[in-house]
Design a protein that fits this description.
Number of strands: 8
CATH architecture of the largest domain: Up-down Bundle
Low-confidence stretches: 285-303
Strand content: 5-15%
CATH class of the largest domain: Mainly Alpha
Largest sheet: 3 strands, parallel
Strand order of the largest sheet: 1-2-3
CATH topology of the largest domain: Zinc Finger, Delta Prime, domain 3
Radius of gyration: 30 Å
Structural class: mainly alpha
Mean pLDDT: 81
Number of domains: 4
Order of helices and strands: EHEHEHHEHHEHHHHHHHHHHEEHEHH
């Protein structure tokens, strides 16, 4: 087996040495194997010199080309080779592998520490082993999650979840206190923003129905709670603003200041109306007031326009920028009685003792009328989210019962129905 580093042997003369040597079979082995690492670094002349040998190699010769930039390899070479893409190793397999290595080395490593190292390796066993080796050197025979967190400059999951909750609840004071505490502990601001993005991404996957069984119980429960609390529009907006904040942190002279401004910008954006609400107001729907009008200038008393039904009430909260309350009304309560300005709801999940009062104040701000909100244990309607799921399942069943669809599934037994588009009224 002969290995050549193409990064330092790029010329046609280096390739000619290989071409001259391939004519002779190995004395003590069945094959001569040539491994050319970073093959994309070869010059154009070197590739051209190698083409004939690649097209008609001797039976006793095998070539292995390794590269991280396959797009730089000429098509004339790719057409004469078999391509194998090495994929990233899943974090679960990396953690299990690192656990075996730690056991063989006689070192005790926490499971949380192994998971942190596996995530930091980003699918590379070599990088992960380097991090593990560094952690073992720091730990002196025992590696804990705290040691790995300090070594990698990471914020712990609990701190990240608490910070995200403060941001989403528009608690600027608590957010600034968390940022100051993270700074005192030496946590990198970029790592903090990336942690928020990871938590939001987990919540998004959970909301989309992806399995989260491999996650720790506490992290899985947090993702489920966020998935119930946030709507799709809010998730996408928060993600985009965090992505912009991460970019600002990476280029700002003071990353701490950039992280602070990014999170404060996200907090104050929580009360802004979404684009659909702005368009509806500009078009004059529902007698809406200008976006910039303060809450005190909205009509009150007999001029108040009360929603006609429960969905219209949720829409009025959306238009007023109270997205979190709108999501809770849509996903987490069942309607018992709707008689404006009185509404009785049955909570499907704990909402907190102050929630009815907060909802009444938000409804007054959104509609201009005084509302009486009460919670009851009476049997009410399913949540609007559950009603939508029931309706979707009904349509899905109708699609699967269609003769043409049945025939398609009989022809392709392994097929699954991923999505469908209703054409009613088209």
């Amino acid at each position: 087996m002969i290995e050549m580093d193409a990064a330092s042997h790029t010329g046609v003369d280096d390739v000619r040495e290989i071409i001259d040597a391939v004519r002779y079979a190995s004395v003590s082995a069945r094959y001569k194997i040539y491994i050319i690492d970073e093959v994309h670094m070869l010059s154009k002349s070197a590739f051209n010199a190698l083409l004939k040998t690649l097209e008609e190699p001797p039976e006793h010769v095998k070539f292995l080309f390794a590269t991280t930039e396959v797009e730089k390899v000429p098509l004339t070479v790719l057409s004469r080779t078999q391509r194998f893409d090495l994929r990233r190793i899943p974090a679960e397999k990396l953690a299990a592998h690192f656990a075996e290595v730690s056991k063989a080395e006689g070192v005790e490593v926490d499971e949380d520490a192994l998971r942190m190292i596996a995530r930091a390796a980003e699918g590379s066993a070599r990088d992960g082993l380097s991090i593990l080796d560094q952690a073992i050197a720091h730990g002196g025979g025992t590696v804990t999650a705290e040691q790995v967190r300090d070594m990698l400059g990471l914020a712990d999951r609990g701190r990240i979840r608490r910070l995200l909750e403060h941001v989403l609840s528009a608690n600027a004071g608590a957010t600034l206190a968390d940022l100051d505490e993270a700074h005192d502990l030496g946590i990198d601001p970029g790592s903090l923003i990336r942690g928020l993005m990871e938590e939001l991404h987990l919540a998004t996957r959970t909301k989309a129905g992806a399995s989260a069984e491999s996650l720790p119980v506490e992290q899985r429960e947090s993702a489920e709670r966020l998935a119930e609390q946030l709507g799709w529009g809010q998730i996408h907006r928060v993600w985009q603003m965090l992505l912009k904040g991460l970019s600002d942190v990476q280029v700002a002279p003071d990353p701490r200041e950039a992280a602070t401004m990014a999170l404060l910008r996200l907090i104050h954006a929580a009360d802004l109306p979404d684009p659909a609400s702005v368009l509806s107001r500009l078009s004059g729907e529902a007698g809406a007031v200008p976006v910039s009008a303060p809450a005190t200038s909205r009509p009150a008393g007999p001029r108040a326009q009360l929603p006609a039904d429960f969905p219209a009430l949720i829409a009025s909260l959306e238009r007023s920028g109270r997205h979190q309350l709108a999501v809770q009304l849509h996903d987490q309560v069942g309607l018992v009685r709707f008689a404006p300005p009185e509404i009785v709801l049955r909570p499907l999940r704990p909402l907190g003792g102050d929630w009815p009062r907060d909802l009444a104040a938000a409804l007054k701000d959104a509609t201009g009328g005084n509302w009486q909100v009460s919670l009851s244990d009476e049997t009410g309607e399913p949540s609007l989210l559950d009603q939508e799921k029931i309706a979707e399942e009904r349509v899905r069943s109708e699609v699967l019962a269609d003769p043409a669809v049945r025939a398609a599934f009989e022809a392709f037994p392994d097929a699954t129905l991923e999505s469908f588009v209703s054409t009613k009224g088209a």
